[in-house]
Fold this protein.
Amino acid sequence: MPTKYYLGFASSSALEQSTISLLEKSASGTKESLVPHMEKSMDLFVPELMQAFLVGTVDAIGLSSMATKIVHSTADIIDKTAKMLVGQLLKKRSNDELKPLIGFVDDIYLRPQTTSTGKASTGCEIDKAQYDRIQYVIAEVRAGNGQKVLGDLHDLMTLVVDTMLEKLMKRPIDLLPLNFIVRKVADGATATCKAAGHGVVNKVFKKLDDDQLIHLANYFDTLVLSAERA
């Protein structure tokens, strides 16, 4: 099987088991509504996504209390916005209507036996060029050239936010048929999350000293992985 590359994070045991349960129930052709199972998976997925890509990042660097507060507040905004949106999107959906969304869950669930880390993970695919660029920046920072690639690192943080929103938020929304009102709600929620994420990158990650850059590079290294997948 070919090697594919991902921005992602190690899934908690609870998220992995919820994902497996959802996929197994769907594959069984159950008549039971899958909406509660999808809601449970999303309730676990969204906070873990925020922890990995926002909260964990600033906590790893050890920034000021104000910067930490900005990031935690932003994660809280996105978490609440996403949960509100999930409720709107899943309301009264039939199992047939949920099939594309369940396919999305299957796609982002990276089985432990396939990943470079050996851990069950959740991730969105990136191309090899993006993966290589991330590895280059990490290597440069570890070699003591952090200030040289500071602009690249800022661009990569923006890439993380945009990839996360496009591939882990907007993509599943686009898989469902939506009426005009729900579409407007979804578009507004996505715009809110994008503005909040970009605000964090621009306010928090523009000026970092060498030690902070090392911590960021080491943490960033945990967010990229590969997997053998068809």
